[in-house]
């Protein structure tokens, strides 16, 4: 099976809460390889490109505001079926219903915060991964 790459982001809530290390520990325990990692303070243009598929949706503006609220950690991650595998580690989008044992299920808070504050991002397909890695790393 061919090795894949994916873009993982520890979003501003994860960085601000000091959860980067705990999240990286889960990723490394799973056996995925950190190919590149950097702290990024994205501007609006970068985020608009990254989230182009969501433009016009009700959560788009709050999502961009949240992503502009502080730095994210961008990770180029490699491994066998890592795209699907990382999304499994992350759990479903809404931290309230994400399964215990997942990053969002274990660390996602539910005290009136928004769905977008769900700690991590992971590319959802090989095409998305190539596109998003180009945005955050090149
Ligand atoms: P991600 O792209 O961050 O890995 O998460 P995902 O595939 O599970 O979620 P997606 O549908 O791609 O949405 C991207 C991000 O937008 C925020 N969101 N808010 N109803 C809402 O308020 C809502 N829905 C989505 C989340 O931050 C989600 O991760
Ligand atoms: Mg997505």
Automatic annotation (TrEMBL):
It is an enzyme of class 2 (transferase). GO terms for biological process: CTP biosynthetic process; GTP biosynthetic process; UTP biosynthetic process. It holds the Pfam family NDK. InterPro entries: NDK-like_dom, NDK-like_dom_sf, Nucleoside_diP_kinase, Nucleoside_diP_kinase_AS. Keywords: ATP-binding, Kinase, Magnesium, Metal-binding, Nucleotide metabolism, Nucleotide-binding, Transferase. ATP binds at residues 11, 59, 87, 93, 104, 118. The active site is at 121 (pros-phosphohistidine intermediate). Its EC number is 2.7.4.6. It catalyses: a 2'-deoxyribonucleoside 5'-diphosphate + ATP = a 2'-deoxyribonucleoside 5'-triphosphate + ADP. Its cofactor is Mg(2+). Gene3D superfamilies: Nucleoside diphosphate kinase-like domain. GO terms for molecular function: ATP binding; metal ion binding; nucleoside diphosphate kinase activity. PROSITE patterns: NDPK, NDPK_LIKE. Residues 3-138 form the Nucleoside diphosphate kinase-like domain. The keyword Metal-binding applies. Belongs to the NDK family. This is Nucleoside diphosphate kinase. It comes from Microbacterium foliorum. The lineage of its organism: Bacteria, Bacillati, Actinomycetota, Actinomycetes, Micrococcales.
């Amino acid at each position: 099976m061919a090795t894949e790459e994916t873009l993982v982001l520890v979003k501003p809530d994860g960085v601000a809460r000091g959860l980067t290390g705990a999240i990286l520990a889960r990723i490394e325990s799973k056996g995925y390889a950190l190919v590149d990692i950097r702290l990024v303070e994205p501007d609006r243009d970068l985020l608009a490109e990254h989230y182009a598929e969501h433009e016009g949706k009700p959560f788009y503006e709050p999502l961009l505001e949240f992503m502009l609220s502080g730095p994210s950690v961008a990770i180029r991650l490699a491994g066998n079926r890592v795209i699907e595998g990382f999304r499994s580690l992350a759990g479903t989008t809404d931290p309230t219903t994400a399964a215990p044992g997942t990053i969002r299920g274990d660390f996602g808070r539910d005290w009136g915060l928004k769905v977008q504050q769900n700690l991590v991002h992971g590319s959802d397909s090989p095409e998305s991964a190539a596109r998003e890695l180009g945005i955050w790393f090149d």
